[in-house]
Write a structure and sequence with these properties.
The chain has 254 residues and is α/β, with parallel strands linked by helices. The protein has one domain (2-247): NAD(P)-binding Rossmann-like Domain (Rossmann fold, 3-Layer(aba) Sandwich), CATH 3.40.50.720. Helix content is 43%, strand content 15%. It has a seven-stranded parallel beta sheet with strand order 3-2-1-4-5-6-7, sandwiched between helices. The longest helix is centred in the middle third of the chain and has 29 residues, at 107-135. It is globular.
Length: 254
């Protein structure tokens, strides 16, 4: 039956930046669909989410890693494989943002954003992809892109550059790995109510401007990504490669 193709029973997933927000919602959605999950953050272990997954009868683990450090990317993938036995799914969600006018944007802020939001995404894709290739059983990689993979944004030049890079990296890896059974796709969330958008939501002018452009008439919630994530991580998307799926309340359509 068609609904069976959305099931993730027996699959093992690593979701970065999954202690809260979008990452936590994605990790829980994958578990609800049947997957065992390794959570990740820099240091906050999400005990409640881990308990929820275990109460579903799935395995759940946690690995702390600073993705700004190249060697910790390796540790994260190796630890996730050790925890679950293999890795079928990687969701690259972790990211940071720095806001300042481009003329005043510091070199340190630029480097910080690029290393976490782009360099680590490539490194984790490379590590997980190599594992999947060696196993010969395919796999699913989902990168969390952004509306700024399509647009330039305001006062976030490094974030826009990194998310544009994530979009192109997704396509490049799909070109290489699709024939080997590895699907590489991306989700581009719209304006979501998370820590990264707190400054925007607290700015009356920017918040009003954003709301006026969203056809759905509301900010997105982390749970709004659940269906897209399960789809792209399941057999239902086996013929979807190199795609950026916008989950944006209609923002890009306006």
């Amino acid at each position: 039956m068609i609904l069976d193709s959305f099931q993730l029973s027996g699959k093992n997933a690593l979701v970065t930046g999954s202690d809260k927000g979008l990452g936590a919602a994605i990790a829980l959605a994958l578990a609800e669909a049947g997957a065992s999950v390794v959570f990740h953050s820099r240091g906050h272990r999400p005990e409640e989410a881990i308990s929820q997954v275990r109460n579903m009868g799935r395995k759940a683990g946690y690995v702390a890693a600073d993705l700004a450090r190249r060697e910790e990317c390796s540790k994260l993938v190796e630890s996730a494989i050790a925890e679950l036995g293999s890795l079928d799914i990687l969701v690259n969600n972790a990211g940071i943002i720095r806001r300042a006018p481009a003329a005043d944007f510091s070199a340190q802020d630029w480097d910080d954003v690029i290393v976490v939001n782009l360099n680590s995404v490539f490194r984790l894709c490379q590590l997980a992809g190599k594992h999947m290739l060696e196993r010969g059983r395919g796999g699913k990689i989902v990168n969390i892109a952004s509306l700024l993979s399509f647009q330039g944004g305001i006062t976030v030049p490094a974030y826009a550059a990194a998310k544009g890079g994530v979009a192109q990296l997704t396509k490049a890896l799909a070109n290489e790995w699709s024939s080997r059974g590895i699907n590489v796709n991306a989700i581009a969330p719209g304006y979501m109510a998370t820590d990264n958008t707190e400054a925007l939501r607290k700015d009356p002018t920017r918040s009003r401007q954003i709301m006026e452009r969203i056809p759905a008439g509301r900010w997105g919630e982390p749970r709004d990504l659940a269906g897209a994530a399960v789809f792209l991580c399941s057999a239902a998307s086996d013929y979807v490669h190199g795609h950026l799926l916008a989950v944006d309340g209609g923002w890009l359509a306006r």
